[in-house]
Amino acid sequence: MEYETLAKEKLPKMIYDYYASGAEDEWTLKENRYAFSRILFRPRILVDVSKIDMTTTVLGFKISMPIMVAPTAMQKMAHPDGEYATARASAAAGTIMTLSSWGTSSVEEVASTGPGVRFFQLYVYKDRNVVTQLVKRAEKAGFKAIVLTVDTPRLGRRESDIKNRFVLPPNLSLKNFDGLNLGKLDKTDDSGLASYVAGQVDRSLSWKDVQWLKSITPLPILVKGVLTAEDARIAVQYGVAGIIVSNHGARQLDYVPATIMALEEVVKATQNRVPVFLDGGIRRGTDVFKALALGASGVFIGRPVVFSLAVDGEAGVRKTLQMLHDELELTMALSGCRSLAEISRNHIVAPWDPPRVTPRL
Ligand SMILES: Cc1cc2nc3c(=O)[nH]c(=O)nc-3n(C[C@H](O)[C@H](O)[C@H](O)COP(=O)(O)O)c2cc1C
């Protein structure tokens, strides 16, 4: 949270607003945070917590903690090292970075930073040759999964971007699309990104395209942007490798619930057939614990990465990941959990839980 304040002081208004804002009234943006504050702990005592294991496995990859990096576009607006810094910091923390389709660094450039497990976030363009080429390039560059964003047939109404006439600074481009002449956002009297999406992104995207995507790549597919049990069930039927409960950091449809409010119904609907992850509003180790207690296999963070990147480059992102790591570890110790598997539904109480008369065993 402090990095956000510092980033606001440092960044030009157009850029800070792009990173910080949500859609329309920003009700969901606030709710993504507030909803966590309504979930309380039921800590267990006198458990030997002298050793705490926070490691976990995501799609078969062992990582140091259940906290990963969400895809956020255009990181070089935050800091000249942009996605390179995020990739290095994530690898150093032993966790997974997701690179946005709209990175200001390409899949090849990010891969060149060295070892590290990385996922590639995909926006499906109208021109499917563009998509096929990009997915092949991500595979070749060693990315381990495709994160298919499914909540963006059109861009949400982000009013500060509209007022600021948001465009990419002239020295930057959407590097993955440079060779295809799709790397620049044109100036408009709207948000430059909203116009770009309207021009390029395929609004007709539907479940059958998940099948199509599976036919062009052997990589596992995570669908990002599921908020209901209905869609979770369909996603499982279509053979996805995992689900990310996300409201796009409250940047798409306003007045959807906080992701932490939607998590449990999605987890129940999947009946343990695929892992469920969450992003949106994670700012504390306690938030991560609450998401795990409600059934998430891990979480992703968006804005904390861009803000710490803006303030201090790679060192900033490292610090953010370290702080969340340490806070989760402390939360586990103070709740009596020695491993992630020990974090249970009984370690928290949510506002929708029935009044507790007798202990739930
Ligand atoms: C500045 C910014 C850019 C984003 N760019 C993308 C993107 O390119 N693709 C995508 O799927 N999600 C994108 N997201 C959504 C994030 O992946 C993630 O869902 C969200 O940031 C999580 O919420 P948090 O910022 O509260 O952690 C972006 C979010 C922000 C704040």
Automatic annotation (TrEMBL):
EC class name: oxidoreductase
Domain FMN hydroxy acid dehydrogenase: residue ranges: 1-353
Key words, A-Z: Flavoprotein, FMN, Glycolate pathway, Oxidoreductase, Peroxisome, Photorespiration
Reaction(s) catalysed by this chain's protein: glycolate + O2 = glyoxylate + H2O2
Name of the molecule in the record: (S)-2-hydroxy-acid oxidase
Record localization: Peroxisome
Domain of life: Eukaryota
Signal peptide: none
Family statement drawn from the similarity comment of this UniProt entry: Belongs to the FMN-dependent alpha-hydroxy acid dehydrogenase family.
Naturally occurring in which organism (per UniProt): Helianthus annuus (Common sunflower)
GO BP annotations, alphabetical order: hydrogen peroxide biosynthetic process; oxidative photosynthetic carbon pathway
Pathway noted in the entry: Photosynthesis; photorespiration; glycine from 2-phosphoglycolate: step 2/3
Residues engaged in binding FMN: 71-73, 100, 121, 149, 158, 224, 246, 279-283, 302-303
Gene Ontology cellular component annotations, sorted alphabetically: peroxisome
